[in-house]
Amino acid sequence: MRKLLALSVLLLSLGATSTAQAQMSTVQLRGIIHHSKCTLRFFKNHPEIRTEERRIMVRKARASLRWAERQLYVTGFPPHHALWVCIHNNEGPWNDHDGGYDGGLQMSQGWFNMFKGSAGYFSQAQQEWFAEKAYAANGYSWSFLNQQWFKWDNADYCAKYG
Fold this sequence. Notes:
The chain is an all-alpha fold.
């Protein structure tokens, strides 16, 4: 328990200063996200631990998780970046907003209610995050990718990234 607390304090102190926040890599942010989720899962699986220390650690883990996910969304690409780039190679330009399917992944207007308007007005990273969230919501399933994009000939090539 003390090791968990020490690790939490260390990770939270990394995120405490603005210079440290600006220099955090995607790997470090994913580490904070992983640690925060593990902390929350630990306390969820051990409801018998009812202390002030638990309450504080859960609150800090939630805050740390929200902060790291927000930073990752702003600064980094999603985990399946290679998959989205591969799919993009068979689709239109990232800033495409002419027609029924827009953006680098050729999403329809308001695709899965992820955004309003045309995907072509969003950055590459934002479009990839929209696709990543939809992919996660569908359980990272092959059928989701197949329905959305893998109707063309070299789909098997991109499948290795999924």
